[in-house]
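job 3f2a | input accepted
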Amino acid sequence: MKVDIAFLRNVALFADLSEEEMTAVSEMFREHKYKRNEIIFFEEDTGKYMYIVKDGRVKVSRLLPSGKEMILTFHEGGEYFGEMSFLDGGTTPATVTAVVPTSILSMGGREFSILLGNSKINMALIKVLCARCREAWAQIEVLTFHNADARIRTALYQLCQKRGVQTDNGIMISIHLTHKELADITGISRETATRVLNTLQSENILRVETRHFVVSDPEKLVDSLLFSETA
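job 3f2a | predicted structure (231 res):
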């Protein structure tokens, strides 16, 4: 199928391509639709495709030895994933699931190999891989805290940096996160996450507006991090 070029212009990987190059790329994709909670691919599957979220939202997660799910990140419209398996020939390091009804564009290995012949694509890939490394380091930073309050505060601060949108009331985290999803990002229980979020609301640091978290001042989240070893 031929994908809307205007949409592809908003995908970082293709932003610098010429009109002719963009037209060729738009013919390399197939579109698939996934229901809420449907698995797109499982952890340790052999990578066969690169994916772009056309609309909807997916979560990237791993199953810990304890059986608990750890959410690594979310991808929304215009964001892509799955390219690492093409680059190193390895299996996928996480399971990807549609959080809501989601449309995905997929590209196979042969088409991806053609893309790698374009220096502009290579430079864009390097930038994205660097960003993924920084995200991994940020996740590690959250998990180094033994205190639940510090984990939630640090995770919200990082989400403000990555997904924050300035509003009259502060920084709105642009993706909708449930208490359970935030708990799965930070490796704590949903009940503990709710307790910490309620405390932040009572301190007027956090508000919930139109199903989004709004942080009055992100710096207040990290100014008074608690380093206690208890959750």
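job 3f2a | Residues 226-231 have pLDDT under 50 and may be disordered.
job 3f2a | closed
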